[in-house]
Amino acid sequence: MSRVLVLVLLIAISAILVLSLARSLDSALEEDAKKLFLEDLSRKYPDAQVREIVQVTPLAGSNGSYYQLKARVSSDLASPCPTRLHIYYNYPPQNFVTQPPDVVTTGCQLCINAPTCVLAFEEEAIVASHTYEGTKQILDYISAYSNAVPSAYFTSEYGQFANVWVVEWDSPSATYSFKAVLSKTGKAPLAILSKSKQ
Predict the structure, then answer these.
(1) Which of 89-93, 117-121, 149-153 has the lowest mean pLDDT?
(2) Which residues does residue 90 pair with via DSSP β-bridges, in sequence order?
(3) 156: number of Cβ within 10 Å
(4) Given the DSSP bridges, would you call strands 161-170 and 149-158 parallel, antiparallel or unpaired?
(5) What does residue 179 show for φ and ψ, rounded to 5 degrees?
(6) Is the pLDDT of residue 27 over 80?
(7) Could you give the CA distance from residue 104 to residue 87 in angstroms, rounded to a whole number?
(8) 110 touches 136 (CB < 8 A)
(9) Of the candidates 195, 48, 79, 83, the residue with the CA atom closest to the CA atom of residue 147
(10) pLDDT score of 6 more than 60
(11) Which of 149, 151, 171, 185 could form a disulfide with 145 if both were Cys (CB 3.0 to 4.6 A apart)?
(12) HEC assignment per residue over the chain
């Protein structure tokens, strides 16, 4: 009976060691994939202000398992027209097939090739804050003060509004600033607020 018990224990310990080794190998492979992806993004998008991996998905393919990584690449965040791309990368590469980047915003355009527009990212909120109908005050402000800088954040509550983007435009040359309150799905601002700095 003791031999059987010892044998069962040895098998159990071996199984635990194999699983532990497999997990550590998977973890090392994922870290290698992230490192290579970030290096590639640095080479391809040297002027980007943000290069970050936002999603890592393990997948099974015809050549075995691999990781699909998704990254955010953002540029010109202090301008009225920031650019945001989503870049995809497979590691190890799968049959040399690459995905074109998803263009989220570029050239002051948002919701490119999208039947409905949902403001999901700060870059989209910045563009919407001065291009949507009803935002002429902010557009005039940006035109008058070329050093105006936006900052955008999403909040679950802002005054009487729930689940909104708030985009503030401020210029060191101006005596006032503007805020646009935007819903995620509306095509016009919920509110445009002016604030004196004095």
Answers:
(1) 89-93
(2) 68
(3) 8
(4) antiparallel
(5) -130, 135
(6) no
(7) 11
(8) no
(9) 79
(10) no
(11) 171
(12) CHHHHHHHHHHHHHHHHHHHHHHHHHHHHHHHHHHHHHHHHHHHCCCCCEEEEEEEEEEEECCEEEEEEEEEEEECCCCCCCEEEEEEEEECCCCCCCCCCEEEEECCEECCCCCCCCCCCHHHHHHHHHHCCCCHHHHHHHHHCCCCEEEEEEEEEECCEEEEEEEEEECCCCCEEEEEEEECCCCCCCEEEEEECC
- Assess contact for 163 and 190: CB atoms under 8 A: no
Q: What is the mean pLDDT of the chain?
A: 84
The single residue listed with the structure tokens 């005054």 is 159
Q: Which two tokens stand for residue 103?
A: 């263009």
Question: Nearest CA to 54 among 27, 85, 96, 93?
Answer: 85
Residue 152 burial class via C-beta count within 10 angstroms: exposed 0-12, middle 13-18, buried 19 and up: buried
Give the length of the chain.
198
Question: What is the per-residue pLDDT for 23?
Answer: 47
- Cβ contact 34:56 at 8 Å: yes
* Best CA proximity match to 164, nearest among 186, 149, 142, 148: 186
Chain centroid to CA 183: how far? 19
Task: Indicate the pairing of strand 161-170 with strand 176-183.
Answer: antiparallel
How many whole angstroms separate alpha carbon 76 and alpha carbon 126? 11
